[in-house]
Amino acid sequence: MENMVFPQMNTLVRMRERTLLSGTQKNELRRASDVDTILKSLMAVEFFSYAQPRSTHDIDSAISDELKGWMDWARQITPDRRITDMFELPDIIHNIRVFIKAKVLERDLSGLYLQDTIYDEKYFSGLLQPGRRELSDGDKRIKAVIEDAVSDFSIHKSLSRIDLIVKFFYHSELVRVSEEIGEPQITDFVTAYIDLDILSVLAQQRVSKHTLNESILFRSKGGLLHAVIPKLFYDSEAAQDAFLRSTPYSTMWDYLSHQSTWDLFDVFADNYLLGLCKKAKLEAFGLFPLFAFMYAKLLDIKNVRTLVAAKRAGADAGGTAERLRDGYDL
């Protein structure tokens, strides 16, 4: 599909790129004295395309509405719904994780479910009903991961293993959808996303000093690191560093490991992935321009959430700056 041309979609994407915050605008928001000033600045630069908050009391719900508005917009213009499916997957995965934990802990966790999706407690419970025969392929996969995680918990009594089982399921779903779409740039993005997600687990292992059980690591799927994951996790830190210097993630990993802190791992990972997306600004074919823009827009919204939370917490401007994701400009 990478050679197909979607002139109307790409024209709309190029026009919407103007709605992304510039570096100057982010710096102004970072220096704002309070949340009210942030809101006024956001209104002045027309950040809100789909929400109209009246006061700071509305800002959190407005940011959520803004995200929903962009997702609706992407659904309307995409020639392939699987593009937006990829961005909806995290909410589905979150709800699967909540359902499994509620089931194994025998607790009411209904307040933790994300809304605006059919994939809720009732939906998942329906998949597990005895004697139900007609399930889509997707429902069969969801049912399988739920049963796998519940069974695993009965043996290991580990919530962290549930998190990893669901994470690896998420990875396999990303690979499946990206392969169906068939665009090399999107496949490259998914490959890097999975690798960086695996490296975030490795970083957490370094902090906790707790080595993961090999049986859980063999469930991982996708990414350049897939073939070496078990060995990588059991190697010494020096051997891990040496190996990762030969990968595309060398600069990021080297910097963070020398800082002896992994607090900014997610920021560096997002910036790495955004760097891959920037290639779409020079692309005239396929679905990658819409995919890349949506990723940039989600990071823009994440930056605003970060700024609002930091201002409420009284964080200093310098500490906030290092947690802001890069811009989409070349």
Describe the protein in words.
The chain is globular. The model has no long low-confidence stretch (mean pLDDT 93). It has helices at residues 7-16, 23-30, 35-44, 59-77, 82-105, 121-127, 137-156, 159-181, 184-208, 214-217, 229-234, 237-244, 250-259, 265-277, 288-313, 317-321. The chain is an all-alpha fold. The longest helix is centred in the C-terminal third of the chain and has 26 residues, at 288-313.
Give a quick rundown of the structure.
The chain is 66% helix and 0% strand. With 330 residues, the protein is an all-alpha fold. Helix 4 (59-77) packs antiparallel against helix 15 (288-313).
H/E element order: HHHHHHHHHHHHHHHH
- What's the pLDDT, averaged over the residues? 93
Helix content: 55-70%
Total DSSP helices? 16
Major β-sheet, in short? none
Shape: globular
Proportion of strand residues: under 5%
Uncertain parts:
none
Secondary structure class reads mainly alpha
The Rg value, from CA coordinates, equals: 21 Å
Count all strands and give the number. Answer: 0
End-to-end span in angstroms?
Answer: 25 Å
